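Blackboard transcription, Thursday session:
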Amino acid sequence: MMAPVGRTLLILGLLVAAYGVVASIYGARAGKREWVDSGRRSVYALAGLMTIAWVIVEAAFLRSDFSFNVVASHSSTTTPTFYKLAAPWSSQEGSLLLWVWLMSLWSSLVLSLTRRRVREIAPYATAVLLGFAAFFTSLAAFFANPFATTSTPPAEGSGLDPLLLHPSMMIHPPMLYSGYTLLAIPFAFGVGALITGRLNVEWISVTRRFALAAWLFLGIGIVLGARWSYTELGWGGYWAWDPVENAALMPWLCTTAFIHSIMIQEKRGMLKVWNVSLVLASGTLAILGTFLVRSGVLDSIHAFGASTLGVPFVLLLTVMIVAAIGLVLWRRNQLRAEAQLDSLLSREAVFLLQNMVLLAMVFVIFWITFFPLISEALTGTKVSVGPPAFRPFIVPLALVLVALAGIGPIIAWRRVTAANLRRSFTLPVLAGVATAVVLLLAGGAGARPFALAMFALGTFVLASVVQELWRGAAARRAMTRESPPLALLRVVRRNHRRYGGYIVHAGLAVLLIGVAASSSFQHSRDVLLKPGQSARVDGYLIRYVRPTAAATAQKISFGAVLAVSRGGRHVTTLRTARGFYPSQDPTQGPIGRFFDGEADSDVGLRAGLTKDIWMVANPDLTPLKGLIDQGNRVFSAELTQTMTRVAKNSLAQQQAALAPLWQLRDQAITEIAARYVTHPWPVEFLLIVDPLVTWIWLGAIIIAGGGLIALWPVPVPLWRRVRAERRARATASPVSPAREPA
Amino acid sequence: MDPSRKRAIRLVVALTAALLLAAALVYISFNAGRREVTASQLLRVAKPGQSYILAGTVLTGSVRRDGAALLFRIRDPKLHLSVPVRYTGAVPDPFAAGRAVMVTVQEQPASSTFVGEQNSLTTKCPSKYQAQAAT
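(Written on the board underneath:)
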């Protein structure tokens, strides 16, 4: 009943989006305000339609309505409610609908907030946003329909992949999609500004907050993915340079560059071509990222397989790239800078250099990620460079980036003087140098020059940020006599964008110190241990105390208790286990299918500020094979006999006859699993001692906090709002004056 | 110095840096790259001592353990053909029969089994797994 409604909503959404595109462009070209308003309202209508469509999909998951194909293949009656809510975006169909829904919501928000501003640009931006919405709605309607149904629904669904039963699953994908969809907003307004030739800073100030929100959401999504990978996937890492991870990183880096360079345009009227190009590139990279995930064009561990969405995305990307280049070339004369760079020793120059470093990173990541396709096109052979190739490029670039993150906040605009250098740089530079000297004297760090440089530069950044916060608070205290914490709070609140940015820089330093330490000083061992045996990793003695086994209705777990000590002193006791979920494959037999399904790891983790002790067990179940095979034979025969005997009975009678057999089966499974404890054999463990991993998560939290401070709306005084509205009315009429309707 | 001359110098320096980066990238890509192959391509081109990135799906019923080593077969996505792999090292949780995987392998002299490079096995992220992709 609800599926046809959902399908109708998608078609209606497509029609509304198409109408909105036409109405907005016609209204802008003909100077008819009512058409422009109608185009904007079609965005609101689309948001309403997609909200109802989304509610229908969520309701189908919550009701376990297996007549929906997407529910049958991604949920089950036993899936916990929390995860039923998150299950829609584990499917191609659901995530496409989520894309359109979020896109329509963000578009409604921006158009509602700007309905009295940038009135020439807004209709074209509306058309672009609705164009994106129409594209994704048509994909959901014709290529991957979440409302596709079957006339013979299964009694039970396949269930959500057990590895996705993690709280991150609820937040990570919507964060990434919010980031991608929000990046469409600056793109759309950038295109609108180029079409209308209104290339002053107003369109930038309108969309800056949305670019910052996109940057924040994308960043949170990336870090949540890394955290999930570290604690859930059982390989011991947090970043694999996979094409789809890179696809999220590229627009994030590009938006980081844009967020910095718009300050130069706002302050000095410089870098107009650069800024508009960055906005267009970020939007295009966001679609490229979506394309990588949807098309499966690269062999990525994240890409949806067997997808038919590649061609439509290539067409969309081609249109975006050609239009972006064409528009920038068309308006190149109006994009000339109003001022020139005064000195290479200035904040503008540092921002510019930082932009170049960020774009170099984007280029390196793009090249290596797409190299299999590039090499295939050039030589006919697909060649993959792999993660090691990133290191020689990204590490030095990251070092320069961190150095610039420290220099940027303390260097003067326009031109630096010797006094400014002395006053601002002495303490941070001393802090950085002292860190390097102490670490060199302490030993160990000297063998890893890049890591040592990162520690020193990270300290330099932290010192420069602390110095700026201190100076700001001290200046306020001198005027107001407030207490230091209150002065600090008020100075940050008053200049939230500036100090929010500084806090982000501090977070970046903390995060990259964590990355440098954990990738340079990690100790890892793959060992085979019997109960009672020990292995030494980075000075820690890790003893396999005893095996554990547990059989529940959901899964069978085989684990271990390990005691960690150092210098004879007990440090911690960790438990790790590998769980096996029942397979639906009948060929594995009535017992075997419980031991050979999807697996997940409960990582044994002791996270600390200085070191993480991380371990997983990878038990070999081969010694149980004989018992499992015997169980399969016995229960297959018994099952066949029972079913033959009760074949003509009712379903309830059949179930009653089978109940004792299931009880026996469960007992047999428990006894087979218990053998892992009663007759233990060697188990393979991956043991890792990794320094400063916690700094990565702490750094990310600081970055998110700084981003929120920069983004947080601060009430604007009434007089300032009135003046801004008057100015807006005076400078920007709703439509071109020559075409103003009577 | 004349401002236009200054700008020209900056442009030359920036372009030189960009060119150097691009040249280094191209050089490393072509020299350090490893061929990405399917099972059928691997059987055609494999030479002992050379590494290849083998991409495909894990053949159902082929996964078993031999001490610390994991034995499995990787199926060609388009053909009914598979190659045996002997692998040691970290096994990502999503690894299972029918899943799309990538592993760096080398041919062993006098053996039909390919040896996987330690810790090189990657498995498709579970959130992107579509059942039809594995069949």
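Lecturer's comment: The first strand of chain B starts at residue 34 and ends at 37.
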